[in-house]
Amino acid sequence: MEVALPEPAVFGEVRAWAHGPLHGRVDFEASGRLAFDVAPFPARQMWEARVTFPAEWVSVDTPAVFGEAALDRLLAEEDAWVREVNGRRERDRVATLESAANNRTAGQLSAAMAVLGLLTVVMGYLKAGRAHPVPYTQRVDANVPAESPAIASYFYWFLSRIGARRAGLRYW
Fold it and tell me: What is the enclosing helix (H) or strand (E) of 36?
């Protein structure tokens, strides 16, 4: 947005401020106009501009606030707002630096935890992950019966009961 004053704006005679998002700009154009730029303008934000210039540039029949007292009050307000905004900028800058440092620390801890987890898995595999040799000392008999396992189990059970009866034990 450009503002054209009754006379060409000259830095020193004219003072201009913009209030709103911190990325806004106020520029004195070569054409004597003031250029206010707040792009991109965020939704739900307030923006305003203030401009002071010599009272002789306009002729007004209605009462207005003129003089050094009004300018001093306005400059004091702007100075307070500038201090507040610069404090907010500094807090934001410090918060950004702290966030970057925290992100670096979190990245380093994540990498260390990943390495530790990988070492745990490798050590666990080296200790218990391989097949254990099981010594088998029994001799395998080549005379395996041709009957199914169920019939072999029945015969084993039946013969063990007969042997128990001969020994004087009763199962039933």
Answer: strand 34-37
How many angstroms separate the CA atoms of 139 and 151, rounded? 23
Domain boundaries, the chain: 1-62, 65-123
Q: Are 52 and 11 within 8 A, CB to CB?
A: no
Handedness of CA 103, 105, 107, 113 (dihedral sign): negative
**Residue 42: cis peptide before it, omega within 30 degrees of 0:** no
Count of CA atoms in the C-beta half-sphere (13 A) of 70: 9
Q: What is the pLDDT of residue 66?
A: 60
Predicted TM-score of the model (pTM): 0.47
Question: Residue 91 corresponds to which amino acid?
Answer: R
Residue 28: name the closest of 57, 58, 5, 56 by CA. Answer: 5
Quote the CA–CA distance of 36 and 3 in Å, as a whole number.
8
